[in-house]
């Protein structure tokens, strides 16, 4: 077995009402001025104001950047940096889902290391730790609040840059399901399927190890059990809390075993068409696993069992097929679009999307390496 390194924030708070406890902990760190990185919606509905009041109560001042795009861009990072420097912020708080977390990571990394966010594309390109980042999560999906992954759209090249760097790991992650209750159905479904994709891709990854396997399979079981409930009734506290734990487990899995072609391909769709990441993952997931079944059938059979299917008496290939059917059934039950054509993906763009997908760092740990033609075929099958 190869040597494994396990990355995770130093402190992680999970559970109903843990936000208040987290702010009390932040007080002990001695920071004075926060930059809160978030989006317009969370500012408008008062979530940002709530966090600012909690910070004020413990003597911490805050400035706000709420311009984060759903697919955060190089411009978002520059805009946030300008506000950070203007207010002389000594730490960053990300508030939201994957978009604000990734944007905040980009801001905090450049604030400490200088240069431009494009300088850090790839693996461990930074020289020193970013400005301290505290990640307060409001969705159950991306796990960006606890990972070393940062995905930023380069608006000049129309691609998503994958920045994988131990120095973008937050120092504290906060998953308070009370902040997730108001999440709309579509976002609950998309982020939940994103978490499922993380777990499955980590489990079939060539960098998987016993720790990531345990996290991935438990995440799959919990998502299969609770995602439909969370989508059906957003105020189902038990479902919300279990989805918060499930997405965190999936994050622990992929933060250390990395991902595969679902993410490599979904990043291209997001960068090219500005589509929602979780939806792209959900549509591609069964098609990529059908391709992976050539090399990872026994692992896919394990996933089918974790999803609750009875595969005890079938061979690995049949088990893999059951897994693919279970994924499709879950996606359909939470109203994920049936194919990429519904997302207005154009057939003539597929060769370019495929070429770029093969350069994405996420694909390097896929269980089987694909040719350009094979990626094209998966995209076409997913249409």
From TrEMBL:
PROSITE patterns: ADH_IRON_1, ADH_IRON_2. InterPro entries: ADH_Fe/GldA, ADH_Fe_C, ADH_Fe_CS, Alcohol_dehydrogenase_Fe. Its EC number is 1.1.1.103. Pfam families: ADH_Fe_C, Fe-ADH. Residues 14-177 form the Alcohol dehydrogenase iron-type/glycerol dehydrogenase GldA domain. Its cofactor is Fe cation. Belongs to the iron-containing alcohol dehydrogenase family. The keyword Disulfide bond does not apply. Residues 188-383 form the Fe-containing alcohol dehydrogenase-like C-terminal domain. Keywords: NAD, Oxidoreductase. It comes from the Bacteria. Transmembrane segments: none annotated. One of its GO terms (molecular function) is L-threonine 3-dehydrogenase activity. This is L-threonine dehydrogenase.
């Amino acid at each position: 077995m190869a040597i494994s390194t396990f990355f995770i924030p130093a402190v992680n708070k999970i559970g109903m009402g843990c936000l208040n406890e987290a702010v009390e902990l932040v007080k002990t760190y001695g920071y004075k001025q926060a930059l809160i990185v978030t989006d317009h919606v969370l500012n408008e509905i008062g979530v940002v104001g709530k966090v600012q009041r909690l910070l004020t109560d413990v003597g911490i001042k805050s400035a706000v950047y709420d311009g984060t795009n759903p697919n955060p861009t190089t411009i978002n990072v520059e805009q946030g940096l300008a506000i950070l420097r203007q207010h002389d912020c000594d730490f960053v708080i990300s508030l939201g889902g994957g978009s604000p977390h990734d944007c905040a990571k980009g801001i905090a990394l450049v604030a400490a290391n200088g240069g431009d966010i494009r300088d850090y594309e790839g693996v461990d390109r930074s020289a020193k730790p970013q400005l301290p980042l505290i990640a307060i999560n409001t969705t159950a999906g991306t796990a960006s609040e606890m990972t070393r992954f940062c995905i930023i759209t380069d608006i000049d090249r129309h691609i998503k840059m994958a920045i994988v760097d131990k120095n973008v790991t937050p120092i504290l992650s906060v998953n308070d399901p009370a902040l997730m209750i108001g999440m709309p159905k579509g976002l609950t479904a998309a982020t939940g399927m994103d978490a499922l994709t993380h777990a499955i891709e980590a489990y079939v990854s060539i960098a998987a190890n016993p720790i990531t396997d345990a996290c991935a399979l438990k995440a799959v079981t919990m998502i299969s059990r609770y995602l439909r409930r969370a989508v059906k009734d957003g105020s189902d506290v038990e479902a919300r809390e279990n989805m918060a734990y499930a997405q965190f487990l999936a994050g622990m899995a992929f933060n250390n075993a990395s991902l595969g072609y679902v993410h490599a391909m979904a990043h291209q769709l997001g960068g090219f068409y500005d589509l929602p990441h979780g939806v792209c993952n959900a549509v591609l997931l069964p098609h990529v696993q059908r391709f992976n079944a050539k090399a990872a059938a026994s692992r896919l059979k394990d996933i089918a069992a974790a999803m609750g299917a009875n595969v005890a008496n079938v061979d690995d290939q049949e088990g893999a097929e059951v897994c693919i059917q279970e994924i499709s059934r879950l996606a359909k039950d939470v109203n994920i679009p049936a194919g990429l054509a519904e997302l207005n993906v154009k057939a003539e763009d597929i060769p370019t999307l495929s070429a770029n997908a093969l350069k994405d760092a996420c694909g390097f740990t896929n269980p089987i390496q694909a040719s350009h033609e094979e990626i094209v075929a998966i995209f076409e099958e997913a249409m």
